[in-house]
Design goal:
84% of the residues lie in helices and 0% in strands. By secondary structure, the protein is mainly alpha-helical. The protein has a domain at 24-63. It starts with a helix and ends with a helix. It comes from Streptomyces lannensis.
Length: 63
């Protein structure tokens, strides 16, 4: 009786887990790319300006 709804809940949960994993991977890639720029002498302020975020946001992304 409730099987279709329960099945959809399980599917949504699996999709959410996969999304969280992808988000972690993208965050790590973003952090690595930003660190590479910093290693090349680009300032956090310059990165922030290019991304349209605050320097503090860049600091958090690098943490």
């Amino acid at each position: 009786m409730h099987e279709p709804t329960l099945s959809r809940i399980k599917e949504a949960r699996e999709q959410a887990i996969q999304h969280a994993r992808l988000a972690q991977q993208f965050a790590a890639e973003r952090r690595d790319l930003m660190q590479s720029l910093i290693d090349q002498g680009v300032s956090q302020a310059d990165i922030a300006r290019e991304l349209g975020v605050s320097r503090q946001a860049v600091q958090k992304m690098l943490a």
